[in-house]
Amino acid sequence: MVITSTFARTLSAFLPGLAVAVLAAPAAAAPARADLEFEWRPESTEVSYLGGMGARAYVQAVATNVGTRAAARVTFHFTPPAGSTMDPAENEQFGWTCDTSAAAWACTNGRTVGPGEFEALNLTVLLPAGTVGDTVTMRGSASTATPERTLRNNSGATTFRYVVPRPADITVNSVSVVPAQRVKANERFEVRIELDNIGGSPAHDVTVRVPLPPAVRAVSLDPGYPGWSCALTGTDAEPAIVCARDSAYDVSQLYNLLSLTLVAGPGAPDGPLTFTATADTSSPEESTGNNAADGGTIYYAEGTMSGRAWLDNDRDGRRDADEPTAYGRIGKIEFVLEGTEPDWDVPRGHLDESGAYSVRLKPGRYVANAYPMGGAPYEFTVPDVGDDTTDSDIIGSTGDYYNRGWSAVVEVTDAGEAVVDIGLAPIA
Ligand SMILES: [Ca+2]
Ligand SMILES: [Ca+2]
Ligand SMILES: [Ca+2]
Ligand SMILES: [Ca+2]
User: Fold this and answer.
1) 337 C-alpha to center of ligand 4: Å?
2) What is the average pLDDT across 344-348?
3) Which domains does the chain have, with CATH numbers?
4) Mean pLDDT value across residues 49-60
5) Mean of the per-residue pLDDT values for the chain?
6) Where does the record locate the signal sequence feature (predicted)?
7) What is the end-to-end Cα distance of the chain in Å, rounded?
């Protein structure tokens, strides 16, 4: 009859005298002993004969304590096939420390495994290239700092088989632009292309082509991530950036981004600015339907209208150095698209204390209307005298009590700077 220590402990709780008697009998009471039982649980063991990221095997090593005493500091030991590697960082996040500096690897999380409990470690093994059909073996074992009942059940082997992998499959997952809106003339933005090889084989001669929309140019041909070289190609009329992968594009790459820094305008069409990235490879692919994607931003075309308003005290039509600002003499300046009536939300400008104003306007042909304060003893001075930087550009006015002056039609272009100056002369 075998009396387990658990049973003995249970007995001791209820029948102390008997328990002592049982434990005291050496023939009947087996001493409590730890006993690790090692087991492989293979998850993915067919690997690409080409090696690389396609030759990753996934296995789980399990150590169960089938003994009756806790097993301290359980450690796994692995003897991988020659040339295999693993990344210790992969298991660090789960509390494991793996030493892969020797031919045999050791991994421990330092924990104690109680009777009936188990510890499991997921292992990614990267195998070297091999021959189709060949199998290779990996041995594993578990150890504990606690003496064990038996060591016969502490190890096992698992096998990996080399197969022909699936073809490559390059995919452009997404194209995104940062910022996603309100990109203005000459403001830098980034086109980010995320791609991957979701097939089973490395893709060779991978290129990514991004045609540049009208008025868009590259600030830099540095793709921002290693492993790529980008160049400007195509014609002047239809330029494109083509980025070439420096080496074979393996499956599951660490760097699967390209980031191009571009600028648009002036003169790019106002509104959506779209980029399409198309990937290509000389390798056979599972699908080419996933090789292109597009994304974009919103281009915001805008120019400025500015000018100076002053009091032309000597009425000569020129803004002289000693003549004062018209700040406080002009109520508002509005900018009306040619051929339209001013709406409630017509763009308006206001003078600062120096008599200057500046407003941002969508490109178009505008007339500037200037409204002197009601009843001010001023009229608009004679326009277009001498240098345009010191003249008045108000060419006509109603001349009544609620006087309104207007400019000629002025064209505001994307990123352009139009000027309408305003001279008020004292009424003689
Ligand atoms: Ca054992
Ligand atoms: Ca593809
Ligand atoms: Ca003057
Ligand atoms: Ca002027």
Assistant:
1) 19
2) 95
3) 1-31 (no CATH), 33-163 (2.60.40.1510), 170-299 (2.60.40.1510), 303-426 (2.60.40.10)
4) 96
5) 92
6) 1-24
7) 130
